[in-house]
Specification:
Layout: H1 5-35, H2 37-42, H3 45-73, H4 75-83, E1 91-98, H5 108-121, E2 128-134, E3 138-145, H6 148-154, H7 168-180, E4 186-193, H8 197-201, E5 213-219, E6 228-234, E7 238-239, E8 245-254, E9 262-269, E10 272-280, E11 286-294, E12 299-307, E13 317-324, E14 328-333, H9 336-341, H10 344-353, E15 361-366, H11 373-376, E16 381-385, H12 392-403, E17 407-411, H13 418-424, E18 431-438, E19 447-450, H14 455-460, E20 475-481, E21 486-491, E22 496-503, E23 506-511, H15 528-540, E24 549-550, E25 555-558, E26 564-568, E27 574-578, E28 584-587, E29 594-599, E30 604-610, H16 624-630, H17 641-655, H18 658-680
């Protein structure tokens, strides 16, 4: 403050002069008072006091004018002082602060904020800084500013770390872009993080900072950590039968550096404790625990496997869901004669689905003329049993049903005419029908080719054609597969037995023989019922349901056109999503572990979300492992001394704009002083 001394003395002088004038005027006034005592005795006492108040107010106004003028004229010294810093290289700094889930360990985040404040405290007037929080993407962003005090004041109020993973590259790219437009040539990126080994190992070392941008790594982390995490739970996503015992398998790992030999694992279903088991990790870092349970009610059940660990809570629980399905709605389409006479295809098919009271399927039978769009929407699967004629409007309704995600199983037999079938099912069937092939003299075909990678085959556990045992086909349709269709089963003569094709969001299966004993003996084989069940299940749930998701993973929700769906998160925050096309909508706000309720006009669901396993691994590395590779050794375009001075001068001028306001205040005080003086000494 020594550079202000002359002006400070001038200010004191400015205060002293009005005071002396004021006192001298008071002495003269006292002489007048003593010589005219008689006159003053007639003057009211209130008037004398009012005159004194005016005189003291004049003194204060004159002193203020001189003091403000002193501050205003000190401006050239301030500018010169900032300009003198050109030789000391003013700095532009971006501080990147890690807010990923691993920063929730202990007091890591508090130490990170303290480190950020220390960086800001090392800067000087004229320097500029910015603050960016990040996890797997950038969060709060403060642009480059010279108001370091305001920036430092925002650090204690930063949001706590969330549950997202760590990704350094997006934040570093943003910092590099921000520094590209910085005022000063001395530019530095400070990365404050725990430097997880996994995040550093995943870093793309081919990317570099811009030439001239320096990197400083500040490590926040403990050398020794303790953390037990439930890393995986294996459970059925969908169950067709309730009251059966199912296995829930949980896996727990020690992802810290300290040995924690014994703990407990607890299974909860719908918030009720089902079982608790001890876990011994003394012989290794991982253990597997098996729970046995029954699901006694249909619907979606919320499950959780939790490990006892007081050191790091975010990964202690693994959430999952199990959907005990209601009976699948199946619509069988048969001609009028079949319904009235209870033909074989109807009787065998209905018998395979089981008694309606205890069946996994709800079967309704209709004639082709009864098919409408509204009727179709109520069913998971539509099955054509030896029926192949449709009116044009019914065919259009069926095609629309498939486009929106419906499914179709077709089993043409003796009553179907190829020409009629191909006309009405054009664009929907996996193959066009060619000719009926009826074997003579007791001849037959067998299944010789199986697509072992298909979900139906995997579910049945079929590995070779011999699994069909004594199944013999003496009648079938020869077909001409259409582009985009796949053959699942093939006869030993090379022709297709079972084909599949995707139509919009739906699927169609075509069995080229019958579903009754008219053309084969398959219904009399033990494979018939499980094969039929798996085909219907595959068609009804052609989109596999995940038992659990990961924080940050987009959740795709199926939504009918024109409808809305409400998503409620673990913190009771609600989001409403709408769709005009009838396709998937994406929910991107799954930012914390727990259960997310999904409720629409006709359907409801529950989705389980867990933290990323990578964030549970707390092992760290030195910042130099990524810092050395970030520095770009390419020469940078030099910033001339004149350019540096100009940048500083502009910033100094910006910080001194308030002197105009001081002069404006002085002007108004001067006018006020004149008016008051005229009234006081009149």
């Amino acid at each position: 403050m020594s550079f202000l001394t002359p002006w400070f003395l001038l200010g004191l002088l400015g205060v002293a002069i009005p005071l002396a004038i004021h006192l001298s005027r008071r002495q003269k006034a006292e002489k007048v008072v003593f010589s005219t005592i008689r006159f003053l005795k007639k003057t009211p006492q209130k008037t004398i006091r009012f005159q004194q108040i005016r005189q003291w107010l004049l003194l204060l106004i004159r002193a203020a004018i001189i003091a403000l003028l002193t501050i205003a004229f000190a401006r050239p010294f301030l500018v010169q002082t900032v300009s003198d810093r050109a030789g000391s290289s003013p700095r532009s700094v971006v501080i990147l602060l890690d807010t990923s889930m691993s920063m929730r360990y202990g007091d890591a985040f508090e130490r990170a904020k303290k480190a950020a404040l220390e960086v800001l405290g090392s800067l000087h007037a004229g320097d500029e800084a910015a603050l960016v929080t990040f996890s797997d993407s950038t969060g709060q962003v403060t642009e480059l500013t010279t108001d370091l005090a305001q920036l430092a004041g925002s650090v204690p109020n930063l949001d706590s770390p969330g549950f997202n993973s760590t990704a350094y590259l997006p934040a570093l790219r943003l910092a590099d872009r921000m520094l590209h437009s910085a005022r000063h040539p001395d530019r530095t990126v400070y990365l404050v993080s725990d430097y997880q080994r996994r995040a550093v190992d995943d870093f793309d070392t081919r990317w570099r900072l811009s030439p001239g941008v320096a990197f400083e790594g500040i490590k926040i982390g403990d050398k020794e950590t303790a953390n037990l995490a439930v890393t995986e739970v294996k459970s059925p996503a969908r169950i067709m039968r309730d009251q059966e015992e199912h296995l829930i398998i949980g896996r727990v790992r020690n992802l810290g550096t300290r040995l924690l030999p014994e703990t407990r694992l607890t299974l909860k279903i719908d918030e009720k404790i089902i079982d608790t088991q001890k876990v011994d990790l003394g012989q290794g870092t991982e253990a597997v625990v098996t729970f046995r349970t029954k699901f006694r009610k249909r619907g979606i059940h919320r499950g959780a496997v939790t490990v006892e660990d007081a050191f790091f809570a975010p990964d202690n629980t693994f959430y999952f869901t199990v959907d005990v399905l209601r009976p699948l709605a199946v619509l069988g389409v048969v001609d009028a004669a079949a319904v009235k006479a209870q033909a074989d295809e109807t009787r065998w098919f209905a018998s395979a689905l089981g008694n309606r009271d205890r069946s996994l399927f709800d079967l309704d039978l209709v004639r082709p003329a009864e098919i409408t769009g509204d009727v179709l929407q109520r069913y998971h699967v539509v099955v054509f049993l030896n029926a192949g004629e449709l009116a044009s409007t019914r065919a259009e309704a069926l095609a629309a049903y498939l486009e929106k995600g419906g499914s179709l199983l077709i089993a043409p037999a003796a009553r179907v005419a190829a020409r009629t079938f191909n006309r009405f099912f054009d664009g929907m069937t996996p193959a066009a029908l060619d000719q009926k092939q009826i074997a003579a003299n007791g001849d037959f075909l067998s299944i010789a080719g199986i697509n072992q990678r298909h979900p139906i085959i995997k579910s049945l556990g079929l590995s070779q054609s011999g699994d069909f045992g004594a199944a013999r086909f003496h009648g079938h349709w020869s077909t001409k597969p259409v582009p985009g269709s796949d053959v699942i089963l093939r006869f030993d003569n090379g022709e297709a037995a079972l084909l599949e094709k995707k139509i919009g969001r739906g699927r169609v299966l075509l069995l080229t023989s019958s579903l009754d004993p008219q053309w084969n003996n398959l219904p009399r084989q033990g494979l018939y019922v499980p094969l039929l069940h798996e085909m219907l299940r595959y068609l009804a749930f052609h989109e596999e349901k995940q038992p659990a998701y990961t924080v940050g993973e987009p959740l795709r929700l199926r939504l009918p056109a024109g409808n809305a769906v409400r998503v409620t998160g673990p913190n009771d925050a609600e989001t409403i999503l709408t769709s005009t096309t009838g396709y998937d909508v994406v929910y991107r706000a799954a930012d914390r572990p727990g259960f997310y309720g999904v409720r629409g006009h006709q359907e409801s669901d529950v989705l389980a979300v867990n933290v990323a396993l990578a964030e549970s691994a707390l092992a760290t590395v030195a910042p130099e492992q990524i810092g050395a590779g970030l520095i770009n050794q390419a020469p940078q375009a030099p910033l001339t001394q004149r350019a540096g001075m100009a940048a500083i001068a502009v910033q100094a001028e910006k910080s001194q704009r308030w002197w105009w306001w001081i002069l404006l205040v002085v002007l108004f005080l001067g006018l006020g002083e004149t008016l008051l003086a005229n009234r006081t000494y009149r």
